[in-house]
Amino acid sequence: MPIKIIEGLPVRTKLQQEQVYTIEASRAISQDIRPLKILILNLMPLKETTELQLLRLLGNSPLQVDVEFLHMSTHKSRNTPTSHLQKFYKTYNEVKDDYFDGMIVTGAPVEKLNFEQVGYIDELKTIIDWAQTHVFSRFYICWGAQFALNHYYNVEKYTLSEKLFGVFDYQNIKPEHPYIRGFDDIYQVPQSRHTKINYEVLHDIPELEILTSSKEYGPDIITSKNQRDLFIFGHLEYDRETLKKEYDRDAGNGLDTAVPYNYYPENNPAENPKFQWRSHGHLLFNNWLNETYQNTLYDLTKLQKLT
């Protein structure tokens, strides 16, 4: 089944080249089917890059997925044209009376700041509180996951002594859980962050369940016991060259940046990076969509009765 996107979204051409099936609203409206309504709160600066990464994964599903993009009205994007945001994105005020089956909150390049120093933090708090009554299933990525865990459970964030940058092994410790169905015992995930949360307190929060973890780097995928909130600190949505572009950018700016761990053959940046996490990215997103589809309400207006 195709993923429904806004008319004229530029990344559709790239998706079609990759044979990711898409359908525009004018065609989808004629189909007698209840699609999954997914809201993507895109906090990344290069929004079209993140759109492409997430739509690739959401589009690899037998379900019809109706996607809408959300941006922060209290933040001025310096890397995405205002015309793109006005045409393809909505603000909180435009969606606050709507209901969604799922919502994805991306990472953001603000992790070195304390949460309260982030300029749009009050609007973000409003959105994820609203999502508790207007969205059935929430999926938080990287900094988005750190913030959500802090906001909901008061889990603190700390600065690492050095950046966690590269592709790392994590252990599947709950293989029976539907969110990681099909995962190998050990899987690899890209990490690119300067911070971590206080992992030690997670075991003392009865509402949470750790699904995957590393002895060296702590948990990666966490879910709420009711499975309506999913948190991942890594980036299974990343493309082959995402870490390369970040490394080249920082090295080109004269920063003392390490070569991404376990990313290039023989640790040589002149080589083509290894793409080692793609299948698990598709598994995680497919599992999340499937669980959302199986458990969400047909009448989304009844969501508030679940809280």
From TrEMBL:
Q: Say yes or no: keyword Transferase present.
A: yes
Could you say which residues are annotated as the site Important for substrate specificity? 192
Q: Name one Pfam family in it.
A: HTS
Which reaction(s) does its UniProt entry say it catalyses?
L-homoserine + acetyl-CoA = O-acetyl-L-homoserine + CoA
Give GO cellular component annotations, separated by semicolons.
cytoplasm
Q: Where does substrate bind?
A: 163, 192, 249
Question: What job does the chain carry out?
Answer: Transfers an acetyl group from acetyl-CoA to L-homoserine, forming acetyl-L-homoserine.
Tell me which family the UniProt entry assigns to this protein: Belongs to the MetA family.
Protein name as catalogued = Homoserine O-acetyltransferase
